[in-house]
C-alpha cells in the first residue's frame, strides 16, 4: 500500500544517502500497546510529547489495520471497523510512503509490532524488520535481566540495532 | 494461502545454538529436587514447575516465531500442529504428534514418545502425584497465551507413571483479541 | 537461564538455592566426565581439567585465562561466557552525573548479573568437590561478556 509516494508527486524528493543516515526512528509495541522501545536517529521536528507521540503511532497502526482488513476485496469474513482483531488475523499492510518519509511495519503473531520510519527512497524493508525482530529475540528476550512487557533498556540491543539501521539503504 | 511456516523443525534444529544435553537434563533434575526439598508438598512443586514453564513460554514464543518464520497463529488447529512438529523439535530435539481432536476442534493431545527431560530419571515412591515434566505444560500454556490463545493443559499420560508415552491435553478456552489500550481521548 | 522467582524478596536465600542446584549438577557432571581418567595428582591438575575438558564439554570452548597466586586461589577467566553473552544493562544508568551515581550504577552492574551467576559458581564448586577439593567460588561479571571465576581452595 502506498499513499502519495507512489505517484512521485514531489519532484524534489531528496535522494537517499547510500547508507548511514536513512533511519529516522523506530518504535516497538507489545500486544498490550505498551511502547517497549522508541529510538530515534534523525528526527528534526518534535511536535508532541513522547507519550502522545507513541499513542498517535499506535492509533495509526490500529486504525490502518482495521481499515485495510475492512477494505479487503478477497474475503467475506471480516468484523466491523474498529473491532479488535487477533494479531495476524485478516490482511495487513507492510509499508506506506509519503513524500517525506516511509513507514514500514511488521507484526509477529505474538503481537510484537516493529515500526521503522525511514527516508522515503529506502528499498523494501520487510526483511530488515524481520532481522530486527531476530535482534530483539537475541538481545532482549534472551537477556535474563530483562522483564517481559517492560520498556527495553538493553545496551547490547541498542548498539547492535544502531549499527544495523546505519546499514539500511 | 501460503503455509503458515515450516512443516518440521529439523532444519531449524540443525542451526540453533545447542546446549549440552546432560547439562540440560541434570539441571532440570536438580531444580525439581531442590523444589521438592524446599516446598515439601508435591502439589506445590507441580504448581511452581508450571509457573516456571509459563515464564519461559512467554519468552520462548518470540524465538520460536522469529526462527521458524511462522507468520500467523490464528487457527488453533494449525497452531497446535506447528508447535508440536516445529516447536518441540526446535527446543527439545524431539518431535511430538497431535492427536485426539474433539469434534469442535478446541481440544487435542500433544503426544511425546521421547523426552530428554526424563533421561536418567526414576521417581521414588515418595513422589507420587508429582508431574515431573510439568514445566512443559507451563511452556506450552505461556507460549499459546502470547498468540492470544488461553488454554488449559493437563497430563493424560506420563511415562514416569508407567504409561507408554507422554500425553498433554490442550484445551482452548478462548481467543483474546487485541484491545485498543488507550481509553480516554485526550 | 531463568531465575527462580520463588524468593523474590529474599535474595540470599534464592542465591543459596540456585547455588545448591548448580552444585548438584556440577557434582554429577564431573563424575561423568572423570569416569575413565586417572586420579588428579594435585589441585592445579584438577583446576586444569575444569578449564579444559569440563569447560569444553559444557561450552565447546576452554577457559581463556588461568591465574593463580600459588596459595590456593585460582582465577578462571572466560572472555566470552556463553551464559551472560546476551546480558546487558540499562544504558541510561551508566551515563551518570555524579560520582555517587557512578558508584551505585557500578554496584548494580555487578549485583544483578551476580544473581544469575550463582548457578555457574555452584557448578564449578560441585565439580571440584567431586574431585575431592573443597572450595569457595565467586564470580566477577564486571567486564561483560567476559566473566571471571575466583576459586579459593579451603585448606
Q: Would you kindly provide a written description of the structure presented here, covering whatever features stand out?
A:
The complex is a heterotrimer of chains A (169), B (186) and C (155). The longest helix of chain A has 22 residues. Chain A has 3 helices and 5 strands; from the N terminus they run ββαβββαα. With 169 residues, chain A is of the alpha+beta class. Chain B has a 4-stranded antiparallel beta sheet, covered by helices on one side. Helices cover 44% and strands 16% of the residues of chain B. The termini of chain B are far apart. Chain B has 5 helices and 4 strands. A 4-stranded antiparallel beta sheet of chain C has the order 1-2-4-3. Chain C is globular. Chains in contact: A-B, A-C, B-C. Chains A and B meet through helix 1 and helix 2 of A and helix 3 of B.
The total number of structural domains of chain C is: 1
- Strand order in space, largest sheet of chain C: 1-2-4-3
Largest sheet of chain C: 4 strands, antiparallel
CATH architecture of chain C: 2-Layer Sandwich
Tell me the span between the first and last alpha carbons of chain A. Answer: 20 Å
Text of the CATH class of chain A = Alpha Beta
Shape descriptor of chain A: globular
**Would you give the CATH topology of chain C?**
Muramoyl-pentapeptide Carboxypeptidase, domain 2
Question: What proportion of the residues of chain A is helical, as a percent range?
Answer: 25-40%
Q: Report the sheet-strand fraction of chain A.
A: 15-25%
Strand segment tally of chain A: 5
CATH architectural arrangement of chain A: 2-Layer Sandwich
Radius of gyration of chain A: 16 Å
Total number of helical segments of chain C? 3
Please mark out the parts of chain A with pLDDT under 50 across 5 or more consecutive residues, or reply none: 1-15
> What structural class do the secondary elements of chain A suggest?
alpha+beta
Give the averaged pLDDT of chain A, no decimals. 80
Main pleated sheet of chain A? 5 strands, antiparallel
In short:
Chain A has 169 residues and is of the alpha+beta class. Chain A has three helices and five strands.
Strands, helices and their partners?
The complex is a heterotrimer of chains A (169), B (186) and C (155).
Chain A: E1 23-29, E2 35-40, H1 50-71, E3 95-97, E4 102-107, E5 113-118, H2 126-141, H3 155-166
Helix pairs in contact in A: 2-3
Chain B: H1 10-15, H2 21-39, H3 42-68, H4 76-92, E1 96-99, E2 107-112, H5 134-146, E3 149-157, E4 166-175
Chain C: H1 11-33, H2 43-59, E1 65-68, E2 73-78, H3 99-130, E3 135-140, E4 147-153
Antiparallel strand pairs in C: 1-2, 2-4, 3-4
Helix pairs in contact in C: 1-3
Amino acid at each position: 500500500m502506498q499513499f502519495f509516494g507512489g505517484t512521485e508527486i514531489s519532484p524534489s524528493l531528496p535522494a537517499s544517502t547510500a547508507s548511514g543516515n536513512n533511519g529516522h526512528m523506530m518504535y516497538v509495541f507489545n500486544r498490550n500497546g505498551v511502547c517497549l522501545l522508541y529510538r530515534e536517529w534523525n528526527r528534526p521536528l518534535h511536535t508532541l510529547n513522547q507519550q502522545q507521540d507513541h499513542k498517535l503511532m499506535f492509533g495509526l497502526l490500529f486504525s490502518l489495520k482495521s481499515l485495510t482488513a475492512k477494505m479487503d476485496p478477497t474475503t467475506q469474513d471480516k468484523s466491523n471497523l474498529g473491532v479488535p482483531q487477533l494479531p495476524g488475523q485478516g490482511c495487513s499492510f507492510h509499508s506506506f510512503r509519503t513524500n517525506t518519509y516511509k513507514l514500514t511495519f511488521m507484526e509477529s503473531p505474538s503481537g510484537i509490532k516493529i515500526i521503522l520510519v525511514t527516508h522515503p527512497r529506502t528499498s523494501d524493508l520487510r526483511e530488515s524488520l524481520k532481522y530486527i525482530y531476530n535482534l530483539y529475540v537475541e538481545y532482549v528476550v534472551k537477556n535474563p535481566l530483562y522483564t517481559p512487557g517492560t520498556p527495553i533498556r538493553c545496551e547490547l540491543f541498542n548498539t547492535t540495532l544502531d549499527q544495523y539501521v546505519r546499514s539500511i539503504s | 494461502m501460503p503455509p503458515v511456516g515450516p512443516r518440521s523443525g529439523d532444519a531449524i534444529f540443525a542451526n540453533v545454538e545447542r546446549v549440552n544435553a546432560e547439562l540440560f537434563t541434570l539441571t532440570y533434575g536438580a531444580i525439581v529436587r531442590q523444589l521438592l526439598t524446599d516446598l515439601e508438598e508435591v502439589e506445590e512443586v507441580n504448581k511452581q514447575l508450571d509457573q516456571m514453564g509459563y515464564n519461559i513460554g512467554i519468552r520462548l514464543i518470540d524465538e520460536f516465531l522469529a526462527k521458524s518464520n511462522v507468520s500467523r497463529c490464528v487457527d488453533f488447529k494449525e497452531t497446535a500442529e506447528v508447535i508440536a512438529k516445529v516447536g518441540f523439535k526446535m527446543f527439545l530435539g524431539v518431535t511430538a504428534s497431535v492427536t485426539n481432536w474433539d469434534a469442535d476442534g478446541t481440544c487435542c493431545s500433544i503426544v511425546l514418545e521421547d523426552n530428554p527431560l526424563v533421561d536418567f530419571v526414576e521417581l521414588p515412591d515418595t513422589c507420587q502425584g508429582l508431574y515431573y515434566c510439568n514445566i512443559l505444560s507451563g511452556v506450552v500454556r505461556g507460549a499459546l497465551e502470547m498468540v492470544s490463545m488461553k488454554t488449559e493443559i493437563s497430563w493424560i499420560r506420563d511415562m514416569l507413571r508407567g504409561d507408554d508415552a507422554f500425553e498433554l491435553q490442550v484445551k482452548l478456552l478462548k481467543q483474546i483479541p487485541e484491545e485498543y489500550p488507550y481509553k480516554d481521548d485526550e | 537461564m531463568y531465575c527462580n522467582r520463588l524468593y523474590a524478596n529474599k535474595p540470599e536465600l534464592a542465591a543459596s538455592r540456585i547455588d545448591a542446584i548448580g552444585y548438584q549438577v556440577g557434582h554429577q557432571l564431573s563424575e561423568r566426565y572423570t569416569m575413565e581418567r586417572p586420579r588428579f595428582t594435585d589441585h592445579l591438575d584438577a583446576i586444569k581439567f575444569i578449564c579444559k575438558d569440563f569447560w569444553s564439554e559444557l561450552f565447546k570452548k576452554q577457559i581463556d585465562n588461568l591465574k593463580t597466586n600459588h596459595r590456593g586461589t585460582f582465577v578462571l577467566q572466560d572472555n566470552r561466557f556463553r551464559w551472560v553473552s546476551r546480558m546487558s544493562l540499562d544504558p541510561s544508568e551508566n551515563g551518570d552525573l555524579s560520582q555517587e551515581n557512578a558508584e551505585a550504577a557500578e554496584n548494580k552492574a555487578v549485583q544483578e548479573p551476580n544473581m544469575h551467576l550463582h548457578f555457574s559458581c555452584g557448578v564449578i564448586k560441585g565439580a571440584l568437590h567431586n574431585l575431592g577439593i573443597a572450595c569457595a567460588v565467586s564470580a566477577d561479571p564486571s567486564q561483560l561478556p567476559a566473566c571471571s571465576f575466583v576459586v579459593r581452595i579451603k585448606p
